[in-house]
């Protein structure tokens, strides 16, 4: 009732034909004949019956009612309907009848209809896609799963480690411990110690997880249907994990120096979090689209996008070691500039208590 008759078969009556022809159509109906809306077609033998009677409106509720009649008695087959013919059925029947006529002509000329049909089928051109989307690859699922794991590890290390550094800076500033520490070491050395110490602890922990997981996958042979090299993926991930952490960690440390309360830390670290979130999400978009497009190739060289896009490109097989080396060189060249900027902010803001220190004020004048 609720299906609107979509589950009921479309009844095709056949008349003026032998039982063999009816059986051939019945076999074809199981695989080729469907209506435009996808309804299956049921073949009904109307031998000895009046087609007009079975098509009439008076027979609509009767068991012998059909929706279309195919008359094969004449030289030219004829289709009869009460009101409107289903174009899907008409097209399929036309193809079957034409194929049958071609086979008869080939047989009459002494040829083999089966061989001709096979030759015609094999004459169709093959399609070669030079730059298929990543999602169309046979091992796309395996590579995408690997990318998810790599990205999650990168994101946890970069965001988690950065938050720890920012919280430590704010805690030392709010408790005024930083004033005691600065009496012994320079501000830049203090910030560098935080970044290096936190980085060693966080990166070593998650690097161990990645190495053990990759080794287990290799020993258990859980990736048999792909040419993905997990050792290369893990190596590239670890390199970009270090570079990405260093890039964002110094920014988190500088941001933490701008406030004196933990409650205000979210306001200054949110822009940095978004700066990491954008390339994280874009790496998935790139992987499922066309990684070889000019936009993605250029964007992958730009820090901080390279920390997420370069491992993604290698995971899907669209990057070589030369591309990785160039992107790494660019990231390492930009890193000293970020260190200089972060050190300036940290040095001038970490000893200023009270309200949030405006970033413009810190960058625009020398410390008193």
Task: Write structural notes for this entry.
With 368 residues, this protein is mainly alpha-helical. The protein has 2 domains: 10-122, D-Maltodextrin-Binding Protein, domain 2 (3-Layer(aba) Sandwich), CATH 3.40.190; 136-364, no CATH class. Helix content is 61%, strand content 5%. It contains 13 helices and 4 strands. A 4-stranded mixed β-sheet has the order 2-1-3-4. Strand 3 and strand 4 form a beta hairpin.
Quick overview:
It is a multi-pass membrane protein. With 368 residues, this protein is mainly alpha-helical. Helix content is 61%, strand content 5%.
Number of domains: 2
So how many helices? 13
Number of strands: 4
Shape: elongated
* Backbone CA Rg: 36 Å
Helix content: 55-70%
**What is the mean pLDDT?**
83
How can the largest sheet be summarized? 4 strands, mixed
Strand ordering within the main sheet? 2-1-3-4
**Low-confidence spans:** none
Structural class: mainly alpha
N-to-C span:
84 Å
Transmembrane segments: 144-166, 195-220, 232-256, 268-287, 294-312, 324-343
Organism: Actinomyces urogenitalis DORA_12
GO molecular function: ABC-type transporter activity
Subcellular location: Membrane
């Amino acid at each position: 009732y609720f299906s609107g008759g979509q589950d009921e078969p479309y009844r095709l009556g056949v008349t003026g034909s032998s039982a063999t022809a009816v059986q051939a159509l019945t076999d074809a109906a199981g695989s080729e004949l469907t209506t435009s809306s996808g309804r299956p077609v049921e073949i009904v033998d109307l031998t000895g019956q009046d087609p007009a009677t079975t098509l009439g409106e008076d027979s609509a509720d009767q068991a012998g009612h059909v929706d279309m009649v195919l008359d094969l008695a004449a030289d030219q087959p004829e289709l009869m309907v009460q009101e409107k013919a289903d174009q899907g059925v008409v097209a399929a029947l036309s193809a079957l009848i034409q194929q049958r006529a071609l086979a008869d002509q080939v047989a009459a000329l002494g040829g083999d209809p089966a061989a001709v049909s096979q030759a015609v089928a094999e004459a169709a051109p093959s399609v070669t896609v030079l730059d298929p989307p990543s999602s169309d690859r046979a091992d796309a699922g395996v590579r995408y799963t690997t990318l998810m794991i790599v990205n999650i590890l990168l994101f946890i290390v970069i965001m988690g480690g950065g938050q720890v550094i920012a919280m430590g800076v704010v805690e030392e500033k709010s408790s005024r411990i930083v004033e005691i520490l600065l009496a012994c070491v320079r501000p830049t050395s203090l910030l560098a110690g935080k970044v290096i110490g936190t980085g060693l602890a966080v990166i070593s922990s998650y690097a161990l997880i990645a190495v053990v997981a990759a080794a287990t996958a290799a020993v258990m042979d859980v990736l048999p249907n792909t040419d993905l090299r997990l050792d290369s993926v893990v190596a590239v991930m670890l390199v970009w994990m270090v570079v990405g952490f260093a890039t964002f960690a110094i920014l988190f440390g500088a941001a933490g120096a701008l406030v004196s309360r933990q409650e205000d830390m979210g306001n200054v670290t949110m822009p940095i979090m978004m700066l990491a979130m954008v390339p994280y999400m874009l790496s998935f978009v790139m992987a499922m689209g066309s990684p070889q497009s000019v936009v993605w190739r250029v964007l992958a060289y730009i820090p901080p996008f390279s920390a997420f896009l370069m491992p993604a490109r290698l995971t899907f097989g669209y990057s070589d070691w030369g591309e990785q080396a160039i992107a790494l060189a660019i990231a390492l060249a930009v890193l000293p500039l970020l260190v200089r900027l972060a050190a300036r902010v940290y040095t001038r803001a970490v000893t200023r208590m009270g309200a949030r220190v405006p970033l413009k004020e810190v960058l625009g004048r020398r410390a008193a």
